[in-house]
Specification:
The structure holds two protein chains of two kinds. Chain A is of the alpha/beta class. Chain A is elongated and about 150 Å long. The chains are: A alpha/beta, B alpha/beta. Chain B: Pfam families: Response_reg (PF00072), Trans_reg_C (PF00486).
Amino acid sequence: MNEPVKPSPDALLRQAAQEGRGKLKIFLGAAPGVGKTFEMLTDGAARRRDGADVVIGVVETHGRAETEALTRGYEIVPRRAVSYEGHSLQEMDIDAILERHPDLVLVDELAHTNAAGSRHPKRHQDVEELLAAGINVYSTLNIQHIESLNDIVASFTRVRVRETVPDSILDMADIEVVDIPPDELIARLHAGKVYLPQEATRALAHFFSKSNLSALRELALRRAAQTVDAQMLDHVRALGLGGTWAGSERVVVAISELAGADNLVRAAKRLADALRAPWTAVFIETPRLQSFTPEEHRRLAFSITLATQLGGQITTVPSTSVIEGLKTFLAESRATQLIVGKSQRSRWFELRHGSVVDRLVRETPAVAVHVLPLAAGTERPGPRSGPVRGQWGDPLGYLWTALMVAAVTGFGSALFHVLDLGNVALLYLLPVMVAASLFGLRTGLFAGLGSSIAYNFFFLPPTGSLTISNPENVVSIFVLLGVAVATSQLTARVRAQADLAAASARVNSALAGFLRELTVLSDREDVERMICAEIARLFGRATVFLAPSGVQGLVVAAASDSSYKLGTMDVAAAQWSFDNRTAAGKGSETLAASEWLFHPLIAGDHALGVLGLSDEGAGAAVRPDQLPLLINLIDQAALVLERFRLEGEMRDVDVIRTRDRLRGALLSSVSHDLRTPLTSVMAAADALEHGATPELIATIKAEAARLNRFVSNLLDMARVEAGALKLNIDAIDLSDAVTSAAHDARAALQGHDLRLQVPPDLPLVRADPQLLHHCLLNLLDNAGRYGDPDTPIVVEGTHRYGTIRLAVLDEGPGLPPGREQEVFETFRRFEGSDRAVGGTGLGLAIVKAFADAMGIAIEAANRQDGRGARFGLVFHSELIVRAAAPGD
Amino acid sequence: MSATVLVVDDEQPIRRLLRNTLERAGYRVVEAINGSEAMLQFRAEAPSAVLLDLGLPDRDGLELVPLMRKEGQTVILVVSARDATDQKVAALDLGADDYVTKPFDTEELLARLRVALRHRSLSSATPKIIRRGDLEIDLDERVVRRGSEEVHLTRKEHDVLAVLARNIGRVVTHDRILGAAWSREEDPRIEYLRIVVRNLRQKLEAPGPVGSIIANELGVGYRLLTDG
């Protein structure tokens, strides 16, 4: 159904254009004085510390000491003097910068206008040239200098700036908003910390009111957010993940409840594909919706669902007239192609009402109108005017009307002696207007008729009969009836429009509220829960979200309340909906026996999950007129979830990069540490041919033992990384463990006197014997390697305050102060320990990983007597075995 | 009489190394490179001992242990690079006599083989008295003497020592020791065993950390060391 989405050519081009170019970062501020330049200099300094070649192209310090101080240490490319009408102006020297070609150049005030006679009239054009040359640029900008916002800013600040930069330059930049609260900015202004040109001081004083600053700040933040969104979309499109085409054509199809509307939808999809254009199915929601037959509801729902399936957008426009609604929408959406259906109406009908198509063609000249025949026999009921509710209106209304007419009659006859006949007729207008406006046309006509009869009978001569002697009184009767008709029409229309406005306001506020709720959440699971809760609230039915989970297929990821029931039929419908990216379940075409209606959440060419709405409690399926809102909400939800997925992917990429870096470090260190002993072994073996000496044999043995240690460390680390550590917890006698470790580490401890100071009566501890053994081996190995030759190594066990400590102490250079904990990082070997000690830096990382797995704390510090390092394993009370009686 | 040793290993360098080592020590060596050949050789040659690798090309060496054990009292010494304790315990439980991990010290391998063979030949008649340095353990009398002085042991200490002594030089798994020295009602727990062993060491060993009389096999069990 959906073809795989191809990467958008525009987006690809835009991204390709970025390659080989420098990157632009804009420090965007709401107003002067927020500290953009300061921020830019600080950030630049950080880059410099990272080793980048950073120079200042132009920075305006305005004599501020703090800013001035920050420019120190930067290389500054001298400005160039430009003489203009006898003045000499200093401008940024773009040629010098191109010549110098730094990694990064700082260019203050992007909106600056260059002096006449410069290469480019505007500084942002200079920046473009620098970027094109592959130089990265940092620049600063105030929000009022952005072209599209210039007018808005001027409208409320009454300050218009002439120096503007085009929006396009923002769209390719990274934007950092430099933001301080308005109060703080005003305080800075009063403290004289904000630079203002002398002549502008007065105008700018108004500019710095709190309300202005708040508005500017909001604009800045919104503009930055917009850029981020646009860049995200570009990224998504370039990856071919879907989204809309950025072409100039736009196809709109008007759908209706008529049979054959689904064919229009398909035609729209074909046209849109051919034009590579986005398309929208629009339903003009007129008051007639209220009187749709179930069949018409079903057909409309089908067209809407079909349009979503085919990848179209769905919009509902509330309007009293199809033509007006369509015209408004076409203008708003900048549509270029419109598809409408033409019903097979009689000539007579068209003569009376005029053809919708003719009017569309006449009144929307910018749009190409495609007219397709609708299936025969779909005669649409003529435009129906009049009140919406019921044909005959409320019986209670007739009662009230009769009472009102009676009351007016009574009132009239009581005052007849002071009123003339015309005034009495006016009195009768009252019940007519009230009835028509409150109860609709028929009740109004009833009031008019009743009033005429009462007027005729009680007041018109000859009174007491229904005959009229004076012909001019006939007019009064027609006036009464006419007023009834006109009033009821008017109020009916007003009411219908109010209903529509209220409905669209509800839809809009629901959408806006939904988005607001979703955007504040940063956790995917919270978002899923919120989607369910909000849709459940808006539609009044239990809602579940199902997402694919590895081998299990779809599982419920979130639910609006935990008491949902999903039967096998429901799960099947959900799965079908997910697989086919189509609605399924109750009220749809597929698996309608399910008690749930499932809609897929689609991003690009794949489904992220399905949302299910329960039927229970609501009684009926989701109404077709609610479908567009539901689909809109689901689309929004899909966008938000897709964002999370993309972010997750990017994080994964980061993780992989880190892992690659580690792997690189591992390979280089491992190949070194494995080859060194191998070389010794091979050389010694060669030498054996000339006769074995005890020394050679010792070398081979020692080097082979070293090799063996490396290999087991590598295996251990691999086991930790693979998450395959299986704990085998036992009660362990520490003196026993230390003795075994000392025995196995004896080769590494040669030249050291090992002193075991572990009291034999230490309580037993709970640990994995093998893991603990490897911890101890590595600690001893480490001490043997870093301890000075011929110094003692002490293993010391203490039991104090319910904690057992087992420490290995060496005598040597110790650890760099302040960086003691870093020794436990993988591949960490401190630079400057220039002794040829070898070792992959894996040993202590293994100690930490194993100790962590067993719940043992580790300590690394320098000895208190300052003679070397001290590594400790700490067994807290929960690891200590209470004294057990062996039985006797 | 030179005993026949069957070496089962798929790696030719290891087989060559073992052959050299064993022949130098006076054994007759036959080789097998996989499980099925091993069983053929085992039945044809009836070796006194088998050095068995676990990672064989056609089957897991562990499967061979019960097959061989069923067919006789041959000494089975597992020689493997697998160092997980559960593998060692499994091999011992299936009837292997001992377990040596690669890479191994050839001297140690020979010592283990010697102990196992000696134990096998004496299996019907465990020596009544075991001597180590100035220590003398009389199993029948349940008396331990250092020099002429009697060392007092509790009943449990005697029981544990007896199990180890009957298997002198060989590793005895924790479960076996617990099963032999504790009754089921006593809820045998490894903590008890550790305490008893610690007490035994304190009573039997000369002061000093190394030079243990009861060696600890990580996560597997204990071994009473022989004199030589």
